[in-house]
Design goal:
alpha+beta; six-stranded mixed β-sheet; 14 strands; elongated
Length: about 325
């Protein structure tokens, strides 16, 4: 009797594990259908979507412990969906060359080492450098430290652009009540490029309210409106988007642009938090240009990692 009950329990657990595996597969495959009406749960799930691969490992271990062939077979479903979604991110898609190197970095208003951060960024020798979350005091430090390599720069509010090439038509982009985005035209040797540097509103995960992203989503819609009006055929949009490329709430922006990391990067390129990156909320997006390679720079005094890309004009 005891053996029979144990066998029945094992079979029941196997069925439950198999059902859980199929549910995980369905959630991964239909992530765009998870409603955003309550607590922006859909956006939160899409933000963490790459990490759903861990569920495959957990379920596989559970199936092995319960010695359930049914559960082990069912785990193939979420594994296949995850590989379909992210298998291409596991290889290095970059190549040599490129006409324009771009770096973007949220330097962190609380950064206690702006001098070291500026020198680390200067060592990357990018053609264009965008900084977000600049304090008024730190902006002066970056101006001084970056001046030798970047004769052209513009800072408006908490966002700044440094360039080896002349900048014209510099203006704030009104995505929030205070300046969190700017636009300029960089006059490169191969023609002009419209450059946008943006820092979308922060989000919070609240135990009751859920993923509070309303202000960020509104900022994204306003940035998208500016991009729709943009007449330059070559556009690069960089910055801290406080959301990932997969997040549907950012689709007004991302649907019109290509992610350098997704097309020419090595791995997922997670950028935040710098101590143990789990999401890529800093990105380099382009239109009318070809991403050649994309990578992260070493950590600075910020809580974000700098992101970089080489582009072919």
């Amino acid at each position: 009797m005891t053996t029979g009950r144990r066998t029945t329990g094992i079979r029941r657990d196997g069925v439950l594990l198999a059902a859980t595996a199929l549910l995980c597969a369905a959630l991964m495959a239909l992530h765009g259908q998870i409603p955003n009406t309550i607590g922006h749960l859909g956006s939160l799930f899409q933000t963490l979507l790459p990490w759903t691969g861990l569920s495959v490992l957990v379920l596989l271990v559970a199936a092995a412990l319960r010695r359930s062939r049914l559960a082990a077979a069912a785990v193939l479903a979420p594994a296949a969906v995850w590989v379909t979604l992210f298998g291409g991110m596991l290889t290095d898609k970059g190549s040599a060359g490129g006409d324009l190197t771009v770096v973007s970095h949220n330097v962190d208003e609380g950064n206690t080492d702006p001098v070291g951060t500026a020198r680390g960024l200067a060592a990357a020798d990018a053609d264009l450098l965008a900084l977000e979350e600049l304090s008024q005091e730190a902006a002066d430090v970056y101006r001084r430290e970056l001046a030798p390599g970047y004769p052209h720069h513009a800072v408006i509010g908490g966002v700044g652009l440094w360039s080896k090439y002349p900048l014209k038509d510099v203006a704030a982009v009104p995505i929030m009540p205070w300046t969190r985005a700017i636009r300029a035209t960089a006059l490169t040797p191969k023609g002009s490029v419209a450059v946008y540097a943006a820092h979308l509103a922060s989000v919070r995960v609240h135990p009751v309210a859920g993923f509070t992203a309303g202000r960020r989503d509104e900022a994204a819609r306003k940035l998208a409106a500016a991009l729709r009006a943009e007449r330059s055929p070559r556009v690069v949009v960089v910055g801290d988007f406080n959301g990932t490329f997969q997040d549907r709430a950012l689709a007004p922006v991302t649907s019109r642009l290509r992610s350098a990391q997704r097309e020419a990067g090595d791995g997922f390129g997670f950028s935040w938090p710098a101590a143990f990156p789990v999401v890529r909320i800093d990105d380099i997006l382009v239109r009318g240009m070809e991403p050649v390679s994309s990578w992260n720079l070493p950590a600075t005094g910020s809580d974000h990692l700098p992101v970089a890309a080489s582009l072919r004009l």
